[in-house]
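Tutorial, part two.
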Amino acid sequence: MDGRHDTDHKDADANTAPVTVRSTVVVPLVLADGRTVESTIYSFDGLRDGKEHFAVRLGNASRPDPLVRLHSECVTGDVFGSARCDCGPQLQEALRRVHEEGGYVLYLRQEGRGIGLFAKLDAYRLQDEGHDTYAANALLGHGEDERDYGVAADMLRAIGAERIRLLSNNPDKHCQLSNEGIEIIAQVPTGVFAGKHNRRYLEAKVRRTGHRISLPAATEAGPKKSGA
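Running the prediction step on this input gives:
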């Protein structure tokens, strides 16, 4: 990686108050397979960007190496089931796997790789003209990926999860968390959810930002374990 986030927040002002847990609440969740499971949702005070990021604890999260998924908000995929991306299936997979193995899903309010919902929809129009997802963001005057995972590191410290297994195909998440002092003992690949509507999007993630995704030859949707 280019190391652009290596020192952005590592030497934060010593007078800055640490992030703390604001509240916790137990919420039953219905998984994609129909099971209803218990979760605990954590909110926070003092997050560096002031946004309402939250963490969802599932399963035996007290284990010494909880499974952690950083999931960036995607209203179109998570809520409405958009087939242009793989966000919805990834979120459902993460909830299931974290429940079964014990850990946390951190839901980060970083829509559109940090550019916001309306700008993401503008980028969709540019993608329809042939630009890939990263080039479209750049044409709108944004960075290709503006997400800052330092806030996720703050959340993990606040809940006492500083030694984790990271559920992700994205090397930048590993890089940023490591630079923030989170010990990642393993990076666990997610499934691959490829279909005719998101194939170009997934190919761009591999080509432009080094995502560790093994795309199937066919484009039918469905999970497949990605390569390491």
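The longest strand covers residues 20-30. In part three we will examine how such features are distributed along the chain.
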